[in-house]
Amino acid sequence: MNPQFDKLVGSRRAFFALLLFTFVVMPVMYSAEMITVGQINMIGRYMCFAILALGLDLLWGYVGILSLCQFTFFCLGGYAMGMHLAHHGGPEGIIDGNGWKIPACLFVVYPYDVGESSGDALVPGFWKPFWNLPLTVALGLLIPGLASFVLGYFVFRSRVRGVYFAILTQAIAVASWLVFCRNDVKLCGTNGLVRFDVIAPAESLTTFNPVDAKDKWIESHEGSLDQDLNKDGKLDQLDYSIADVGFSLSSDEVRFGLYLITAACLFGAFLLCRWVVNSRLGRVLLAIRDDESTLCFFGYKPYVYKMFAFSLAGILAGLAGMLYVPQMQIITPSNMEAYRSLLVVVWVAVGGRGTLAGAVLGALVVNLLYNYFTSQHDFYFFSWNPDYWQILLGLMFVLVVLYLPNGLIGLLDKVRGSIGLLLRRNRS
Amino acid sequence: MTQSLEKERPSSGDVGSVSYLEGYREYLPSQVNHEAWSSRFVLFVENLSVSFDGFKAVDIPCYGVGHGELRVIIGPNGAGKTTFCDLVSGKTRPSAGQVFFDGKEITTMDESEIALRGIGRKFQTPTVFDSLTTYENLLLALPGNQGWKDNLFRAESKAESANIEEILEKVSLADQRDKLAKSLSHGQRQWLAISALIIAKPKLLLVDEPAAGLTDSETEKTAELLLELAKEHTLVVIEHDMEFVRRLDSTVTVLNEGKVLAEGSMGEMERNEEVMEAYLGR
């Protein structure tokens, strides 16, 4: 095949093997009931983390920018999708004065003013665009993209670098966590967005809400219907139309479909990042990591390139968040806590910094280990306490930093190299 | 711009050595004429000074480098040679005064803008990008490709690629083409840094200590390279090595304590008592 493709995927054999595993072996194993839909769902969620890690690896591994607020951008995307799901979630029947259905999770923590009662609750204006799925997807990419772009513009232009940048982004992570925890921002406070039901791709902006639609329908049929409004059950149908349009998140097919979409997005994100780092712009990014000030004397404006990488990582984080929420079926501000973004750094470091494939590997491996070691296990001689996980994680990080400077990917390469050497020796 | 230059200025007081000012008599700041000097000098500074914590590192009433000239700047340690380069290339902002390049004031521009206007710079220690290969280092230096869109969507053209190969051949780095720059020897790094300047085709090259840390044969080769460059570009070379300066055989400016002490041929400088005193100490 053509060399450009080889250059894009790195190792063609490994790429096709993984493609085969993800899209053929896993589905076959699932249909043969060797793995449950729950496990498929778990892999799907960890793949979202892998997309997030790809973005950080692009930033940290290639440009040398250590961003500690990637999970904030992840949550911006996640909240966008969460708002869409909450709009179409149950239960029915809480209608505000403007005819909008108030999402259940918002209703329970609605920040009423003094003297207001539950009848005065209104769906905030900024929730309304998220009724529509395409718009939600667009906003879920645009909002984190724009947030990182604006932040990058001010920070990189004023030449904030290195550890100062890391501290600044960590402060931003903490600040946004505090903001999202408040009830008055009307994003459901610490409870987060819950009570999801369906993804509703068919809902367009013109049928903004069921009550509106019902009223319009009655209006348009006035005269012909006033005898018996509910004669053939048409109104009931309309009432629950929202439950019918869309894919139920609790159905196995939809959960499996979400896994496939996430996997496709992961491969897409990986190829996009590979394409960027293989282009001449990728060379400029490496040059910035090496010696930013010298690059200025070549006529480059490093801040433009840093903004590009930061925005791309922000958009990838938003994408990851949007894919994560329907699979997790909840999004809370706890995902924004500062340690979450630090974890992404650990994933990338464990997998191998500056390799992209390492970021994916690290995110999947660390999270699978997390999944295993945060439950109780009884061995012959001692029982594993879930609390030990923190120690294991710390140990893993320290060991990788000390003995595997190129992470797990470096280890794999080494193993492959020595196997090749052994084979050649045996042959001769 | 012309008006602001022609307006009366306070006399510059201590104007340094008379011998160097002879050559600039007609261009003294109080009488500076924009057209006249931009036709004669590609780079011109006026009342340029910078101080760090009250210490005046550079204080030059007027100084210029002619079109197509090869100029060598020498001076004892701490004379302000590198600081002068920093001021011209935008790395340091002057405390007072102006820098003009190619008829335009560049005093307030940032490094990348100045570089795009056509001032190339080689630093004292060779600055190459360690994680890039020799070829990729030169790729970055190609002129007119500094925008992000260009870099993302367009690969280098055949002509540009051939240009790089040709220069690699010239500085005998062709067999190091795909090696990472961090594996190059000191001399090879120097040449790579100079090659990057050649590729960028700047109007003016500031070369800071090209012979530092090189072997004799490498020094000789570097001198040849610079002399060849001087045929097509304006060059300002800062150097310590007197042998090397003699080899370049061109107009020499002596800096001392941030001021221009004298200007002339190398022979003249060696006979100049003031210069010898500055070098040998009093």
Can you give a write-up of this model?
The complex is a heterodimer of chains A (428) and B (282). Chain A has 428 residues and is mostly helical. Chain A has two domains: 1-34, no CATH class; 36-113 and 120-221 and 233-336, no CATH class. Chain A contains 17 helices and four strands. In chain A, the strands form two sheets. In chain A, strands 1-2 form a two-stranded antiparallel sheet. In chain A, strands 3-4 form a two-stranded antiparallel sheet. The longest helix of chain A has 27 residues, at 37-63. Chain A starts with a helix and ends with a helix. Mean pLDDT of chain A is 87; it is low at 235-244. Chain B is of the alpha/beta class. Chain B folds into two domains: 2-128 and 184-280, Rossmann fold (3-Layer(aba) Sandwich); 130-183, no CATH class. Chain B has 13 helices and ten strands. In chain B, the strands form two sheets. A six-stranded mixed β-sheet of chain B has the order 6-7-8-3-9-10, sandwiched between helices. Chain B has a four-stranded antiparallel β-sheet with strand order 2-1-4-5. In chain B, helix 6 (134-141) packs parallel to helix 9 (186-200) and helix 8 crosses helix 9 (186-200). The radius of gyration of chain B is 19 Å and the shape is globular. Residues 1-16 of chain B have low confidence and may be disordered. The interface between A and B is medium-sized, with 23 and 33 residues.
